[in-house]
Amino acid sequence: MAKSYPLPKFYFKVSRPEQEFNSADQIGFTEVSGLDYQTDLIEYRHGADPNFSKIKMPGLRKFSNVTLKKGLIQGFKDANADFFSWIGDGSKAGSVRKRVGYRKNLVITLNDEEGNPVVAWTLTNAFPVKVSFTDMKADANEVAVETLELGIEELTVEYK
Hints:
Layout: E1 12-15, E2 29-33, E3 37-44, E4 55-63, E5 66-71, H1 77-84, E6 104-111, E7 117-132, E8 145-151, E9 154-159
Antiparallel strand pairs: 1-6, 2-5, 3-4, 5-8, 6-7, 7-8, 7-9
């Protein structure tokens, strides 16, 4: 592959560093969005400053929520349950409603056409903040898609 061409964005993988989701290759995601953050701006000027303007300093970082979308696949009940039990009904640890062990680190890897990782985004302490199930229309010619929105505490990027 020529190194001078921009990388296509269609070959990516979502995984947990300690273990992948059950059958992640079978329930793969169709879209990942929200991989961004910003640094708040702090402006300051003391009264005796001879320059009649404020200085600008970096402040706190804010991370956007990351959205994962996947098609609803018939016959993969266990794989779907593993992923969506994360938000949970509060009956077991590891669910958001139980407030115990629900934060997970995720890695999103963008690969080249040969499957080699090129860029990896690590989402630290991610947890579900919103789940959206598919809408239904009798005259639609579309795939049923579920959406999981994650709150994160940190986003780091590593170029391979």
